Automatic annotation (TrEMBL), chain B:
Species lineage: Archaea, Methanobacteriati, Methanobacteriota, Stenosarchaea group, Methanomicrobia
Native organism: Methanolobus vulcani
Intracellular or extracellular location(s): Cell membrane; Membrane
Domain of life, source organism: Archaea
Transmembrane stretches, start-end: 44-64, 71-89, 95-117, 138-165, 249-266
Official protein name in the record: Glycine betaine/proline transport system permease protein
SUPFAM superfamilies: MetI-like
This protein's UniProt keywords: Cell membrane, Membrane, Transmembrane, Transmembrane helix, Transport
Length: 343, 277
């Protein structure tokens, strides 16, 4: 996922990948073959079979109908007419343009033309898709549909997609890794969280300023280390001492495998000590817990309904972190402070 | 002021004789080819009797012009008028000359235009030649044609071919240069060879402009074929010439009208062939 201000070199970088622009230096490896040093013939084969491109300005061939545009790449490969039409129809259906096969491209709306460009790139079934603002002209509904389609495609076919986008939300939704470009240089590359939580410089943090962090940051990003915890076999006194020492009003109780057994509140503990009860007797087993990859947006409502802390539990039911109210607010506030410093 | 009398005329003359001497056989071959071309077109056009021809032509024009009924009916009337003026054979001869010369001119001009669009060096050589050719009055072309090919249809046609080429070269060159960069990139990105790129992207996209060149080429051929009557080309032009020489207003006017009718039909027909953008 390539992002950056207009003129920062996103299209230029994308074009270097299929050598529409000759890179002046470096290597471009696909399956171990370096595109940058290929001769004309190898390059042509690679472009035919492995790479295809969706253009920023659609770039449909005006003299061809929709289906002939979509079948263009296959035609260049020398695929027979029946076969390429069959594949082209499949691609047209994928982008939701069934019924427009024999229309002239000039009669279609911008969004439809863009989808023809998309279908043209999909029809050759390439390993690598280069997409230059491929969804920019689509209305929100179709856009979101196309994004889902692309995600499904990537999931199923394991394609490599290099996607240029101006839309941060789109980048965050689609991108495994996001590169933020500035003046022809990649300012930072990393996952959405990495970029949001640890921007490389002011430019990057300013760039991601508008993002709704609660959608991106997950439980894992805001949780604290699960300390202190008390073992289920310890005495109540130990538990009370730990709580006093750390100045907290509740503590998670775990077994030796670090599986959460419940939560112990300080008031219950004090009362229990007087009545000579054990931890098990006053343990509250009905606790709130989340998985580490749950976005904060979903955690906030859960937390606001209760005053007890939230346990973050991995797939083996191990306690890996704790979220208290303060930690969410803290995580959101820190990043917002950063932005205020910039302006 | 006394300037030395430069022997330009003599030099050119001896140069021409030298060329004729060394390459005369090539010109004979060329001359034969053109002769065959003209007579085959003529035979084809005169194969049907006028009335049958008009019916077939009207239907063909209707189909070729994508069902332009006005053009088809207009053409039918024009052709009937030509026949009723007794100019049928002469008109078919003129059309044969136009088609032959336009065909040869386009066969040379379109590839030249494509090469000029691809190669800057060639372009810089061709461009001044075209500029020069277009500033020359049309009948100047007749002189070298007569020198090399004598009198008759062949030199008339040679002059016509040379005269009709420049706009077709120019517009082909222009059309290909105007193909949007992004479309060139699409072709490249999908792995076209340069031949595929030319035939599947560049030529089709440039077609409207190239067709404008074809149209001009045909129209210039027609005008030149008429002028070429001065060096013995036949057809309606010759009829006009005779009309002028004998001050026979009626004959000259009728032949002139025939030329206009043919011009309009050819013009509209080639225009309607041009794909709409
Ligand atoms: N690494 C680079 N080296 C030299 N020139 C560059 C480099 N990157 C970009 N440029 C130049 O910057 C200009 C704009 O680049 P480009 O078209 O890639 O911008 P973009 O990020 O795609 O912008 P937009 O969002 O408007 O599409 C181009 O003229 C390009 O030549
Ligand atoms: Mg761009």
């Amino acid at each position: 996922m390539l992002m950056g201000l207009s003129g920062s070199g996103k299209s230029t970088l994308l074009r270097c990948l299929n050598r529409l622009i000759e890179p002046s230096d470096g290597h471009i490896l696909i399956d171990g073959d370096d595109i940058a040093t290929m001769d004309d013939k190898e390059l042509r084969e690679t472009r035919r079979k492995k790479l295809s491109m969706v253009f920023q300005g659609f770039a449909l061939l005006p003299h061809r109908t929709v289906i002939d545009n979509v079948a263009f790449g296959l035609e260049i490969q020398g695929v027979s007419k029946e076969e390429r039409y069959a594949k082209a129809e499949e691609a047209i259906a994928k982008v939701g343009l069934k019924g427009y096969e024999s229309s002239k491209t000039s009669q279609l709306s911008g969004g439809m033309q863009q989808r023809v460009g998309l279908a043209r790139a999909l029809a050759t079934d390439p390993d690598v898709l280069l997409m230059d603002e491929a969804f920019s002209a689509l209305d929100p509904l179709i856009r979101s549909e196309m994004q889902d389609e692309l995600l499904a495609l990537q999931d199923k076919m394991k394609k490599t997609i290099v996607f240029v986008s101006h839309d941060l939300d789109e980048a965050l939704k689609l991108g495994d890794r996001i590169a933020i470009m500035k003046d022809g240089i990649i300012a930072q590359i990393g996952t959405a969280e990495e970029i949001l939580t640890d921007p490389a410089d002011d430019y990057v943090s300013e760039f991601v300023a508008g993002v709704d962090r609660t959608k991106i940051l997950t439980a894992e990003n805001v949780m604290k280390r699960p300390e202190p915890v008390v073992s289920i076999n310890s005495g109540l006194k130990v538990a009370l001492q730990l709580m006093k020492k750390h100045g907290i009003s509740s503590i998670f109780v775990v077994d030796p495998e670090k599986t959460v057994k419940g939560i112990l509140f300080i008031d219950d503990a004090v009362a229990a000590v007087k009545d000579k009860k054990t931890i098990q007797d006053v343990l509250v087993t009905d606790i709130l817990s989340v998985k580490p990859d749950v976005p904060i947006k979903e955690i906030i409502p859960v937390m606001s309904d209760s005053s007890s802390p939230l346990a973050v539990i991995n797939e083996n039911n191990k306690l890996i972190g704790v979220i208290v109210r303060g930690s969410i607010l803290g995580a959101l506030a820190i990043t917002e402070d950063d932005q205020n410093d910039l302006t | 002021m006394i300037l030395p009398d430069l022997p330009i005329g003599e030099t050119v003359e001896s140069g021409v004789y030298w060329l004729n001497d060394k390459f005369g056989f090539l010109m004979d071959i060329f001359s034969n080819i053109i002769d065959i071309l003209i007579s085959s077109f003529k035979d084809a056009l005169l194969f049907l009797p006028p009335f049958a021809f008009i019916i077939v032509a009207t239907i063909l024009i209707y189909l070729i012009s994508r069902k332009n009924i006005k053009l088809a009916i207009g053409s039918a009337f024009g052709l009937l008028l030509i026949d009723s003026m007794g100019l049928w054979t002469l008109s078919m001869e003129t059309i044969a000359l136009v088609l032959s010369s336009a065909l040869v001119a386009l066969l040379i001009a379109i590839p030249t235009g494509i090469i000029a669009a691809k190669n800057e060096t060639i372009f810089h050589i061709v461009k001044p030649i075209l500029d020069f050719m277009q500033t020359m009055p049309s009948f100047v072309y007749l002189i070298p044609a007569v020198i090399f090919f004598g009198l008759g249809n062949v030199p008339g046609l040679v002059a016509t071919i040379v005269f009709a080429m420049p706009p077709a070269i120019r517009l082909t060159n222009l059309g290909i240069r105007q193909v949007p960069v992004e479309l060139e990139e699409v072709a490249t990105a999908f792995g076209t060879t340069s031949i595929q790129k030319l035939f599947k992207v560049e030529l089709p996209v440039a077609l409207p402009t190239i067709m404008a060149g074809v149209n001009q080429c045909i129209m210039l051929s027609l005008s030149m074929v008429v002028i070429a009557a001065m060096i013995g080309a036949r057809g309606l032009g010759y009829q006009v010439l005779v009309g002028i020489q004998r001050v026979n207003i009626g004959q000259g006017f009728e032949a002139g009208l025939g030329i206009v009718i043919i011009a309009i039909i050819l013009d509209r027909l080639t225009q309607s062939l041009t794909p709409k953008k």
